[in-house]
Amino acid sequence: MTIQTKNYAFVRNKLLNKEEIALLDVREEDPHAQEHPLFAANLPISRVEVDAYAKLPKKNVPIVTLDDGEGFAKLAAERLIHLGYSDVSVFDGGVKGWKASGGEVFKDVNVPSKSFGEFVESKRHTPSLSAQEVKQLIDSKEDVVVVDVRRFDEYNTMSIPTGISVPGAELVLRLPELAPNPKTKVIVNCAGRTRSIIGTQSLINAGIPNEVNALRNGTIGWTLAGQELDKGQSRKFQEVSDDTKNEAAVRARSVADRAGVKRATLNDLHPWKAQSDRTTYFFDTRTPEEYETGHLPGFRSVPGGQLVQETEMVAPVRGARVVLVDPSGGGVRANMPASWLAQMAWDVYVLDDVHPSNLTETGMWKAPLPTLPTIDSIDAVTVSTWLKSDSNTIVIDFSTHANYVKGHVPGSWYALRSQLAEAMKNIPEVDRYVITSSPSELSLFAAQELQKLTDAEVLVLEGGNAVWVKAGLELEKGPCHLASPPLDRYKRPYEGTSVDPAAMQAYLDWEFGLVEQLGKDGTHHFWVL
Fold this sequence. Notes:
Layout: E1 5-6, H1 8-16, E2 22-25, H2 29-34, E3 41-42, H3 48-55, E4 63-66, H4 72-82, E5 88-91, H5 94-100, H6 111-124, E6 128-129, H7 131-139, E7 144-148, H8 152-157, E8 164-165, H9 171-178, E9 185-189, H10 194-205, E10 212-215, H11 218-224, H12 242-258, E11 262-264, H13 266-274, E12 280-284, H14 288-293, E13 300-301, H15 304-309, H16 311-314, E14 321-325, H17 332-343, E15 347-351, E16 377-378, H18 380-389, E17 393-397, H19 401-406, E18 413-414, H20 420-424, E19 432-436, H21 441-451, E20 457-461, H22 464-470, H23 501-512, H24 514-521
Parallel strand pairs: 1-5, 2-3, 2-4, 4-5, 6-10, 7-8, 7-9, 9-10, 11-15, 12-13, 12-14, 14-15, 16-20, 17-18, 17-19, 19-20
């Protein structure tokens, strides 16, 4: 298949003109995180079929695939064309070609959001306190409230002593009842810098009367100061009164209006969903629990704080329209994230006048999927019996490395679909391979590829790992049988409880340099209220 190529000037012009483009780095997350263009969104070749329809809702959006010479870009382009996308090209020369043309490259993940956070601080001089200063406030029993704006699972792993979990978009709604006295000092923390800067500035922009400071450098700064973090905490925000909600709604709407956020109604949704010349993303920015209780059809659950932090992960089409809704929080959790997306140069709308009767769907969001390959399947109990009595059966797990380590079918091998041929050299040859994954649909595509590499019988575990657990079958934990290197996950220098201090400091130094890199890149269109 002959596939067109596109060059640096083409991509750069699209970005400068704010036209739609999906520049997709189709390598695994770790190589992507080593260096990539600012707006290159990571969509690994391993997951193209299961992620494409959600991330690229318009079939004629201009797509340019990128790798670093491994051949993944062409293969991903072929898969996207097979899925029905009509404007797919390969970036000429890969990452090396981008650099040779004078393009700036960035390290780490969620770089547009992290660089934007640094940009905000550089323009607004967002107030912050050092780890030592915050510890002194806590130790001397000052009137202070510490709010942790990360996801709850991150907070639960490690947190600042006395900290309460209040994920970013909840801040303006919840803080008035966590700190009802305007003399109470408020400290906003995350793991590093971005989310605490955005959280602190959100409260300031919304006119909260309290003194608000970011914890400078987050849990990393706390650790580098030699101070102990709490582990396993579960303090969470509580529901607020209608008066508090109404006041927060007025504050948030005012910030959104100042940022130029546009308004939409339910009548706009159908034409936007049907529009062929424009990509539109629809996000419900409440908590996942509220979303599951009832939501609008076609809206994906993406809590607002994480949306601002990880925009490119759910909206890789730069230049697209983004529609946010918060039907049960007075719009606060849509208006505050929308105000930031507007400053990140997104075409962003908040949906107004949504009533409980409009929330006709319940349950978790389900990704739209293409027609799945037909592969013979086998139930979990039978596989369990085979594994106990038959050394000629091997299970191969194509889940993320993180999920594999948390728990997998005993004796199963971890493999990356993008490295399948190499992985099979490390897995013993047997007469039967059973393929599993989470999500289970991924195993169908992996099994289809494996059938071309072996004469052995290839089956899929019906329902994947979730069904194995549901059947009450035992799991094995840890990195037991790795047939592939765990390239699908870039180890963040702020995750977990045993991180090298030198890596933490290097991460902070990198963040400090982002504003200068933005200037060199010149395609961002960021601005600050």
